Amino acid sequence: MDVLEQVRDIRTDDTPVSEQQLNTARQAMLRQIAREERTPSRGRRRWAGASVLAGGVAAAAIAISVLTPARIDPAAAAVLEDAADVTINAVDTQLAPGQYLRIQTDSATLWKWDADMGDSINARFNNANRADAEAGLIVTDSRVLYVPADRSADWIWDWRANESVVDSFGKRSAEAIADWTTYTGQADGGYWPDIQRLPGGEALAADGDDHEYLLDSYRRSYEDMPRDPKLLLEWFRDDSGDPDVSDQWVIAAMTGVLTANLMPADLRAATLRAMALIPGIQVENVDGNLTTLIYRSGDWFSSRTTEVTIDTAQGLIISVAETSSEGNSDLLPDTIPDGKTTVTTTIVDSAPDSED
To answer: How far is Cα 310 from Cα 308, in angstroms, rounded to an integer?
Structure first.
């Protein structure tokens, strides 16, 4: 059952929608998405609104009619549904003995610097408000996890890559870079080995806590997590422990586990379909096989945005960007994410030795 059928079931008290109507609507949406690839980005973003109906596309109007009660964007639903179909055969399905799934995580983080926060370096970088920042730094980092074909064997966590400043903003950025250089020079880089061997993928947790699974935090729950998208969406909401949990948190939880590509394939597909049922997620941009979805919460003064880029040819999430904003900032506009994580997944025949 795909997401359009899920939404049809929500309307059990309305006029039934036939399989033919659903298939017609689904194909119309996919054709519209293909057309959007050939139009300017501004046109793509407007399509989620009234332009479909104004265009007089009957099948697309049917889809809008079906989806309106849940406020689900039909274009986003179609992309996620298509990705769910493809992801069943994505990278990770069959590794030969001795092979590894190589998961490279590249991050770009915005460090906000404010001289008024205090005399210590920690204090000057402890500023979450863009409007008050006097400088900003983009710091990149890279980590690689090697997951063996036999997941009960040792996983290898390689974090030898050094962090580096790749961009800066503001007239006082030289002071911020100097602070950052001093801060990283004082950090105890020898506390953890640069290459770690993790039996079964278990990472050390805080005293008194259970061991954690690196990039695979839901592993203990995989068997219990529903494969029905509606039930799975509720499972994620319930898992937060907060009855008033925001769907922003739910999207972050889903993308966090999906980017690692370590879920069972059927559960990964169900999670993509569950994400399609979240009201408010929309198509932001289409560039060939790469489709970016966006979800916003908050108001004009304080907001949070999540951008999720999917490789629809592989059915994999390849990047996630998060942006929080309070007030306006000419120095650090909302076009600069607080953090962006890009994930590259490949199959390799060996992993570095933890003693190298």
So the answer is: 6
What is the SS3 assignment for 31? helix
| Contact yes or no for 332/110 (Cβ under 8 A) | yes
Query: Is-contact 85 3, C-beta < 8 A?
Result: no
Q: Which residues of the chain have pLDDT under 50?
A: 7-8, 10-17, 20-70, 356
Distance between CA atoms of residues 37 and 286, nearest Å = 6
Task: Say if residues 344 and 259 touch (Cβ distance below 8 Å).
Answer: no
- In angstroms, the CA 26 to CA 190 distance is 54
The model carries a pTM of: 0.74
Q: What is the largest CA-CA distance in the chain?
A: 68
User: For residue 205, what pLDDT is reported?
Assistant: 63
Q: Provide the pLDDT for residue 225.
A: 96
Distance separating alpha carbons of residues 163 and 154, to the nearest angstrom:
26
Is the Cα torsion angle 239, 242, 245, 248 positive or negative in sign? negative
